[in-house]
Amino acid sequence: MAIAKDEPRPLSEAAQQQFQRDKVVITPKTYRQVFSAYEPENSPFFITTDCVIAGWHSLLQQSLRQMEEGFAARMPSALDRVLESLPRKAPEGMTKPQYVAGLERAKIVLGVASRLAGGKWRAEGELGKRIEAEAKRVEKAEGVYMPAWLKDDLTGAVGLDYAVFKPAGFHAEQESLRRYFRALRWLQTVPFAVKRDESVAAMALMVPGFQKAPEFEKMSEVFQALVGSSGKDAMDLVSEIVDPMEFDLENYRRILASPTETDPKRVIFGAACTIDVRLFRSETDPESRPFPESLEMAAFLGSPLGVRRFPEEASEVRRSESAEDLHTRYLECLRDLTAAPDPMAPAFMKSDVWVAKSTNTQLAGWVKLCHDFVLQRQEAAITLGISSSHPNGFVEPNPKFYRHVGRLAADAGKVFERAGSLAPQQDVQARAREAVALCRELSKMRENQEESGPDGNLSPELKEKSMQGFSMLVDFWPVLKAEGVDISDTDSYVGVLEKIAAGKDLEGVSELLQGNHLPTLLARWLDLIVLCGDLGDISQKELRGIELDARDEEVIAKFGERLGSIMSYDAEGWKFPRDDAPEVAPVFNQPGQGMLMGAVGRPREIRVLYPWKNEEIECTGAILPFHEFRSDRHLTDGEWKVMLDGANPPASPDWMQPLMVK
């Protein structure tokens, strides 16, 4: 017998029949965040693996952001030090023509990076004009152009694709991160042909400076822990060259070259050619097949749906069992989603319909990975009666996945702790910056409402945003109180928040840091680890028919609030989430023909008829909907959101249609 919820949202007759047949459907209902589906009144729940993916990526993105903010603050002065350290005379063994040409090349590349990052170093005369013109092209981020000084290193190409310099993801939200994005992407993009003496000389001349700027070596070390080796770049020279004032052209070539390449090119700071990038490059051709399909990635991840359509991809690129980087290990977690279900799993989880749901979750998780590592990786109603008693809900039964993610979260926390991005002071500053931005947005919304004719009532949007703002101000109450702030004076409390964001040592800040008033980012990572363990244990019990204890029931009942806290919505903040779940990332770039974009939309409602004691209980939860489409330019998350809300938003993939109801 199917047991419905107390207040079921109506399904059409056809949708009801589909629900009864398949036991699972995706409805048109959307949420701002995945945890919003798990408010107590929506019980019984179906806790999905999508929620764990969302929580993991929320922490990953916050940790990356705080790490990148630190790198962004140090990059301008580091680049200036490298420029100031360029040898004023030719190293022993370097000819004068090699030195003159190499020095100019080094100054152009590093000078543009310094200008983009906000450094103070400036060249004079014609060289200064060339650097400024190049920096403006990067900032404009449009079109393909071949700089005259670069044409000999780009033989066979039409030029640089300047669209890649458009800041993406969280880097687009803050000016210091936008500058950092452009500067680092520039250093990752400009090639140095190893066959050309001038190019090798230019890289050689940079070595003394990089040896005096350990920030870049630290970045290289952290990036390798995140996404694996970037291959050979200038950092290889920094680590291998003992005396940079002795130049041996062939030795430098030996360090930079690879025996399998006929015309090797290197960059100053490499981005990793991750396994998904390699897969897509191996399966495409600019002429015959310019774009791949995302289902090819699903096939590589072991999805039966993907393997049926692309059987070759399942074995084309072999995974590295010994890989230690977070990117590769995360892809291994995604493999668990479409592995053969436990023999004790409900029957509907052994159907093709469930394979489609799990494939969607895989690809949504992969797109979020591309989104977060955009700088580190290269651009490629049933009403049949009410049960008198039933559990608070059920957990999608995939214990291996939860435990796999828990171990990965533990190691990720260690990586970011070593990078220095989990310090409590940084947590408070990041939270204060977020509060300042929200307060300014609120002020603008109030002004707009007043201009349109105030009627004494707040618009729903303004009400909701006001609740978000109030929740954030409560977080900082010890400092605001100590500073004697008038809470009705916006300028007064925004001024204090700006000081906190800038790292000023105000009275009350120590209370935030020491009194657990604000959960730290490290504490959120730890809670995700514990939550993954809880979900693994509960799903194992449910598979084996073992009764849940009171703590298990509490984990399910308070899942939404707990996940909201992990995703930085503390106290009542999880009830008023921001509408920022949609994310987009380029997953493959075909120069001159556009790019394949992967995207995640707003979380959608999933309904499941879960078998329990010879009955079927209707449960609700949330999934992350996957989309793919082609674009002639890079898109920000904001631009994707506009597309999603437009008259003709991209449809869900055809293979997801059997799950969808209207």
Give a concise summary.
The protein is α+β, with helices and mostly antiparallel strands and 662 residues long.
Description:
It contains 25 helices and 13 strands. The chain has helices at 13-22, 49-84, 96-117, 125-140, 175-189, 197-211, 214-227, 234-240, 249-256, 275-282, 294-300, 304-309, 313-316, 326-335, 352-372, 399-418, 424-451, 460-475, 477-482, 490-501, 509-514, 521-544, 550-557, 559-566, 637-645, and strands at residues 2-3, 24-30, 45-47, 144-145, 160-161, 192-193, 265-266, 393-395, 583-590, 594-600, 604-612, 615-623, 626-631. The protein has 662 residues and is an alpha+beta fold. The model is unreliable at 316-321 and 381-388 (pLDDT under 50). Helix 2 crosses helix 5 (175-189) and helix 6 (197-211) packs across helix 8.
Radius of gyration: 27 Å
> What's the overall geometry?
globular
Which oligomeric form is depicted?
single chain
Mean pLDDT: 84
Q: Characteristics of this structure?
A:
alpha+beta; 662 residues; single chain; 9% strand; 25 helices
Give the topology.
Layout: E1 2-3, H1 13-22, E2 24-30, E3 45-47, H2 49-84, H3 96-117, H4 125-140, E4 144-145, E5 160-161, H5 175-189, E6 192-193, H6 197-211, H7 214-227, H8 234-240, H9 249-256, E7 265-266, H10 275-282, H11 294-300, H12 304-309, H13 313-316, H14 326-335, H15 352-372, E8 393-395, H16 399-418, H17 424-451, H18 460-475, H19 477-482, H20 490-501, H21 509-514, H22 521-544, H23 550-557, H24 559-566, E9 583-590, E10 594-600, E11 604-612, E12 615-623, E13 626-631, H25 637-645
Parallel strand pairs: 1-12, 3-8
Antiparallel strand pairs: 2-11, 4-5, 6-7, 9-10, 10-13, 11-12
